[in-house]
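Q: Structure tokens for this one, please.
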Amino acid sequence: MAATDAGSVTAEELERSQGGVRVDADDPSALVAAAEALSQDRSRAIELGTNGQRFRRETLSEGAAIAHYDEFITSLATSRGQ
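A: Here is the predicted structure, written as tokens:
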């Protein structure tokens, strides 16, 4: 759950990961309401947690960073050879 502006980096990460709920940063009552709603929906909470863990593993982990860097370097080397 994040209280952040729409269009922010955090909001984009939440959207990409499907691992959380976003509310406007200037609306504390929306944050409380979202937390209460999530506490009553165990399956949704599990889904968000699973999605967040998958996103961390596939996108934010050291292994994922190294793989992306390797792809980047390979693409540079390949484009230089043309």
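A few notes: The chain has a mean pLDDT of 93. The chain has one domain: 2-80.
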